[in-house]
Amino acid sequence: MWAHLGWQDIKQRYRRSVIGPLWITISMAVTVTALGLLYSQLFGQPLAEHLPYLAVGFIVWGFIGNCVNDGSEVFISNEGLIKQLPAPVSIHVLRLLWRQVLFFAHNLVVYFVLLFVFPHPLSLTVLLAIPAFALIAINGAWVILVVGTISTRFRDIPPVTQSIVQLMFFMTPIVWNYDQFKSNPNPAIAERAKLAEINPFMHFLEIIRQPMLGSPIAWHHWLVCGAITVVGWILALIVLRNYRARVSYWV
């Protein structure tokens, strides 16, 4: 059911459109190209290096950010179904997650185009991108469940969530290169760059961006993501056990 509903969301969004879901890919391509041309000049990096770096960052962040933002309203936006259809709340969580996976798949076309235009030496480590995305999706599920439940009870949470996601976009190495600042000859800048390690979004971004770009794998990012996954799902199971029956009343 959740797979069917998620697919219908995509079809409904682009109903009567000539090129349909390809608008997702075109929008991402235009954004990445424009910002890549700008920030490659600002940071003094070759376009062939910075554009794929920026593209992967945007594609992954689009999945993460949408899971958090849309997750805050996952039950509110499905009020009618929740009240009329006796189904587990997990259906709405999986429906949203599946829709974001489809968006991610459309945006991934931009990555393959850039890989063709700006070839990067890749090794078998590129296959790590598959379990990396699976790990991100697993975390997306518990985030949607927890944030969605809290937001259903407290309707002031969605605007706060959107503001936090927007702030974290600038604090996460997406348009700026973390390694470039960490190796800056100015010790003050290099030291401050290490503060980015506190940002949990950075670790999820790096576990998939490093294999997709053929960069050396930093395994501590995987350890951090694994720890967040365990803690997050423990929290989600507690929320699910205590509050899932109340969601239909809160909406």
Order of helices and strands: HHHHHHHHHHHH
Count of DSSP H/I helices: 12
Number of strands: 0
- Tally of individual domains: 1
- Look at the helices and sheets and give the structural class: mainly alpha
Q: What helical percentage do the residues reach?
A: over 70%
Judging from the principal axes of the Cα atoms, what is the shape? globular
Write down the Rg. Answer: 19 Å
Low-confidence stretches: none
How would you name the oligomeric state of the polypeptide chains in this document?
Answer: single chain
| Average pLDDT reading | 85
β-strand percent reads under 5%
Please summarize the sheet with the most strands.
Answer: none
**C-alpha end-to-end distance:** 21 Å
Family: Belongs to the ABC-2 integral membrane protein family.
Protein name: ABC transporter permease
Membrane topology: Multi-pass membrane protein
Subcellular location: Cell membrane
Index terms:
251 residues, mainly alpha, 75% helix
How is this structure best described in words?
The protein has 251 residues and is mostly helical. It has one domain (1-248). It is built from twelve helices and no strands. The two termini are 21 Å apart. The mean pLDDT is 85. Belongs to the ABC-2 integral membrane protein family. This is ABC transporter permease. The chain crosses the membrane at residues 21-39, 51-68, 101-118, 124-148, 160-178, 219-240. One of its GO terms (biological process) is lipopolysaccharide transport.
